[in-house]
Design brief:
- The protein is mainly alpha-helical.
- It folds into 2 domains: 3-171 and 336-369, no CATH class; 193-326, no CATH class.
- The protein is built from 15 helices and 9 strands.
- It has helices spanning 49-59, 64-70, 75-85, 89-105, 125-129, 131-138, 141-151, 192-200, 204-210, 215-229, 233-247, 281-295, 307-363, 367-434, 444-456, and strands spanning 3-7, 20-26, 29-34, 72-74, 113-115, 120-123, 212-214, 266-269, 274-277.
- The chain has a 3-stranded antiparallel sheet with strand order 1-3-2, with helices on one face.
- Strand 2 and strand 3 (29-34) form a beta hairpin.
- Helix 7 packs antiparallel against helix 13 (307-363) and helix 8 packs across helix 13.
Length: 457
């Protein structure tokens, strides 16, 4: 998470260091946001292996002057990528506002990305010359935008993120469903965690300024508080008297019923008309805890019959002031964090596209042509596989047909041999049938001779 390191005072001409940005909370309150611990898209792990070799192949195609020219994008290039990638219109408007703000001021907020008054974004020269640093910067350009979009919480049936949605103004931070008619809690994103996160993100100098409450701010909060709960005339008078003892009386302890311990930890500056609260976490947490029932939407009837109770009502209003301020800081801090991350991711994507275009123009081979060749090669390979499968099926059928013919020939030969055997067996039977049987003691010669002579006669 980003840190709030100090208060930004235009009159003193403060120096904005690397990865820092003025963050406007209210019209009269601007703080310095430090992004060094946030981990922007520019802070990628070092590229190695095949990815680095592929980048170096493209890097060597361009000369140093061509490379510097290629790594320059204008507002049109950035906003084209922005409109194509980011669905939330609120995020897009915030990125456009931040881009023009950085071009005008020249703050090194997204270092090593540099923006000048001509609305041109480029990269620091030392990063361009050093190939390893440039490869690391441009690596993961598309993945960074996708991760940002997926990490943004959104309302259902809406393209807007929660920070820029129409429901953002009515969301409550403490989980209550009731709404406050006149105001505090309107910035309640996350309740206790939100104000505590904003408090932990601030350095000591920023905390001291946040805990400074002007008399006018406290008076307006107290006025709305009394009107909301409809205090009776006596109770209202008591509460206003407790307020006067805090902001006007030099010696409030002389007042009957006044409890000085309740206002302990509050330093009054009557001439400058503001209060200094203790910039301690426990004290601020205790002060906000007093106001918690009110922040939860408690509308019970309230009374202040004694001056002590009236002082407690004033402390509740002080807690409301601090809570509302911290919630506003938390909202602006997270909104500006997301805007910086989105601008960095979109800028890197635009730079990479410009770099790719320059490489394609120099090499004479467009990415579309390479894609077409790749698709064509895939189609040819697929067609060859189909032809090979067809050829295999044809050979298989021919082989099966040949095996069938051989089998048929064998069967025919078997059948012929079987028929031949049967015919031979039939002829043998016929010979046996027409020949007389030979019996013992029978003279065959006489038989055949007598038969022959009988035929001659």
């Amino acid at each position: 998470m980003a840190k709030l390191v100090d208060i930004y005072n235009c009159e003193k001409e403060p120096v904005i260091k690397r990865r820092q940005l003025p963050l406007t909370i209210y019209e009269n309150l601007t703080m310095i946001m430090d992004l060094n611990t946030m981990g922007l898209i520019c802070d990628n792990p070092q590229v190695k292996g095949r990815e680095y070799e592929e980048f170096m192949r493209k890097y060597r195609i361009l000369t140093t002057d061509e490379l510097k020219s290629a790594l320059r994008v204008d507002a049109t290039d950035i906003f084209n990528v922005l409109n194509q990638s980011i669905p939330c219109v609120g995020c897009r408007r915030s990125v456009e506002r931040l881009f023009y703000q950085l071009c005008k001021s020249g703050h090194p907020t997204l270092d090593p990305l540099i923006m000048n008054t001509d609305e041109i974004m480029t990269i620091r020269e030392d990063k361009i010359i050093h190939s390893q640093s440039l490869a690391t910067l441009l690596n993961g350009h598309s993945t960074g935008i996708e991760c940002l979009i997926l990490s943004q919480p959104r309302w259902k049936k809406s393209q807007r993120c929660t920070l820029h949605s129409l429901e953002a103004g009515t969301a409550r931070g403490w989980g209550a469903t009731s709404t406050c008619g006149w105001g505090w809690g309107a910035w309640g994103w996350g309740g206790r965690a939100a104000w505590r996160a904003a408090w932990d993100a601030m350095r000591a100098s920023a905390r001291e300024h946040v805990t400074l409450v002007h008399f006018n701010t406290l008076h307006d909060t107290l006025h709305n508080y009394l009107r909301k709960h409809r205090f009776c005339a006596d109770c209202k008078t008591k509460v206003l008297r407790a307020y006067q003892l805090l902001v006007e009386e030099k010696e409030p302890q002389k007042e009957k019923g006044y409890v000085g311990a309740l206002y302990g930890g509050i330093k009054r500056c009557l001439l400058d008309k503001h209060l200094h609260l203790q910039a301690k976490t426990d004290y601020i947490a205790h002060l906000i805890a007093r106001a918690e029932p009110e922040l939860l939407g408690n509308h019970r009837e309230r009374h202040a019959k004694t001056l002590e109770i009236a002082q407690e009502e004033v402390l509740i209003c002080l807690g409301i002031c601090i809570y509302e301020r911290l919630q506003r800081i938390s909202l602006r801090l997270r909104e500006e964090e997301g805007t910086c991350q989105t601008l960095a991711a979109v800028a890197v994507e635009a730079l990479y596209r410009k770099f790719e275009t320059a490489v394609e123009m120099k090499s004479g081979v467009s990415k579309l042509q390479l894609l077409y060749d790749e698709i064509t090669q895939e189609e040819v390979t697929r067609q060859q596989r189909k032809e090979q499968k067809k050829l295999k099926r044809r050979k298989k059928k021919e082989r099966q047909a040949g095996e069938g013919k051989c089998k048929q020939r064998k069967e025919q030969k078997k059948l012929k041999r079987r028929k031949k055997k049967e015919r031979q067996a039939g002829e043998g039977k016929c010979k046996v049938r027409y020949c007389s049987p030979v019996s013992p003691g029978f003279d065959n010669r006489k038989y055949f001779q007598s038969s022959y002579f009988d035929l001659l006669i």
